[in-house]
Design goal:
The chain is α+β, with helices and mostly antiparallel strands and 439 residues long. It has 19 helices and 10 strands.
């Protein structure tokens, strides 16, 4: 009897480590079997091809989402930077009387906490022409010589010339595209024609006057570079029949997103009826369209990742059918249904995780070199990709947001995990008796 017991102990002792291994979640043998199922063999070449397509699909989907979101973020940030580099964050206009005391009001407004600068302006539409007789519409903005350096978008981007002539009151600053269209260079004269000219017995005659070009600037936003001319304020007041009057006072604040909190302070500083508008109201339609486009693009491009996740489902279902005999043998050796589920879950999840990691790496590399890539494809195709005349900016921007990138990663991995659950559950429910019936 004692010999039988000893013999039984010898038989059962080797099985104990195996049972512990089978019962451990994500144990070494589970990872080994999952890895073997991922490797391509001649008999399972078709399944491996599907897994490869799933990997590539997730990689491209994640990379595309990251790149598109980064470009749209960069596009919005660059537009805001350029728009607010020329235009004020808040615009103050008088209601009850003309702004003939703009100098005093500018001093008061500049003293409000949070206001960086207060700039009186006179502006108007004109027809500008160069020495070749070519004419085009232009927006002339009259600004004080001391205030022009406060517009960083202009003063920090002078391509040729300087602001000395502007400060002397006998020169204008012209946008680079406008100068190119009119064939102007520093030292040439630009002729301005305004329909609101002198009043004569025969009616109103257009006002025509020439000004020397003292500087050419490039903001980087084609709409401004092709239409804006800056003129000394005193000269603009004479030209537009606004002697001693400013049309508005533009305020540049420390935090453009905090303009609502400054409204009561500005109204109190002025002490009379005024109308205040801010940069969000001036460009509401434009930025709303950008936000809608950004959200729609995110939803559409998410479908790429979803299709790749569906490929994981089809590949795993075929793998489960092909490995039915192997699953039955593992079950007879002591593997639990949970162990089988984890094996196939790791097989599908590995495709999703590695595809996501590769997609993030590809997206980061492209975002860091987006302008060089654009220039290469422009050279390769012989066409201008991302035409500045259509897209406002002269360079293709990309600004990766860590929160958005993390959202894309979690979304891709989450879809991949969900895609593996059903095939893995099917594998765990496989009956070993039925699988080995005809073997």
């Amino acid at each position: 009897m004692s010999g039988d017991i000893a013999q039984a102990d010898e038989v059962t002792k080797p099985a104990a480590p195996a049972n512990r291994s089978f019962g451990r979640a994500f144990s070494g043998y589970e990872r080994m079997v999952a890895w073997r199922y991922l490797r391509a063999r001649r008999k399972e070449a078709f399944i491996s091809v599907i897994a490869g397509f799933s990997f590539v699909g997730i990689m491209l989907g994640v990379a595309t989402l990251i790149i598109v979101m980064a470009v749209m973020n960069g596009f919005r940030a660059e537009l805001i930077d350029r728009i607010l580099g020329v235009n004020g964050h808040m615009i103050v206009q008088s209601i009850d009387q003309p702004l003939n005391d703009y100098d005093e009001l500018a001093v008061k407004l500049a003293g409000v906490e949070g206001v960086r600068a207060a700039v009186p302006l006179v502006d108007g539409q004109t027809l500008a022409s160069g020495y070749r007789g070519v004419g085009t519409g232009a927006l002339v903005r009259g600004i004080r010589a001391d205030d022009l350096p406060k517009l960083g978008g202009v003063s920090n981007n002078i391509l040729s010339g300087d602001l000395i002539g502007f400060a002397a009151g006998d020169g204008v600053a012209v946008g680079s595209r406008l100068a190119a269209n009119l064939g102007l260079a520093v030292g040439d004269s630009v002729q301005l024609i305004s329909p609101e000219g002198d009043v004569t017995p025969l009616g109103v005659t257009p006002r025509i006057k020439s000004y020397p070009v003292s500087a050419i600037f490039e903001i980087g936003m084609s709409e401004y570079d092709a239409s804006m001319i800056f003129m000394p304020l005193s000269e603009a007041q004479l030209y537009f029949n606004s002697d001693g009057i400013a049309q508005s006072i533009e305020l540049f604040v420390d935090d453009p997103d905090d303009v609502d909190a400054l409204r009561p302070l500005i109204e109190e500083a002025v002490g009379r009826q005024i109308f205040i508008s801010d940069w969000r109201q001036q460009n509401r339609t434009f930025f709303s369209a950008l936000e809608v486009e950004r959200n729609v693009m995110f939803m559409i491009l998410t479908l790429i990742v979803l299709v790749a996740a569906l490929n994981i489902i089809s590949g795993l279902i075929m793998l489960v059918k092909d490995k039915g005999r192997d699953i039955a043998i593992l079950r007879t050796m002591g593997a639990t249904s949970g162990s089988i589920l984890r094996i196939f879950f790791m097989t599908g999840a590995a495709i999703g995780v590695t595809g996501t990691i590769a997609g993030v790496a590809l997206g980061v590399v492209v975002c860091l070199n987006i302008e060089s890539i654009r220039q290469f494809f422009s050279w390769l195709s012989g066409t201008t990709l991302f035409n500045p005349e259509l897209y406002f900016l002269s360079q293709l921007p990309a600004d990766m947001d860590p929160g958005e990138t993390l959202t894309v990663i979690l979304m891709a991995i989450g879809l991949s995990f969900l895609a593996t659950l059903f095939p893995a559950w099917r594998a765990s429910r496989l009956d070993p008796v039925e699988a080995l019936r005809y073997e």
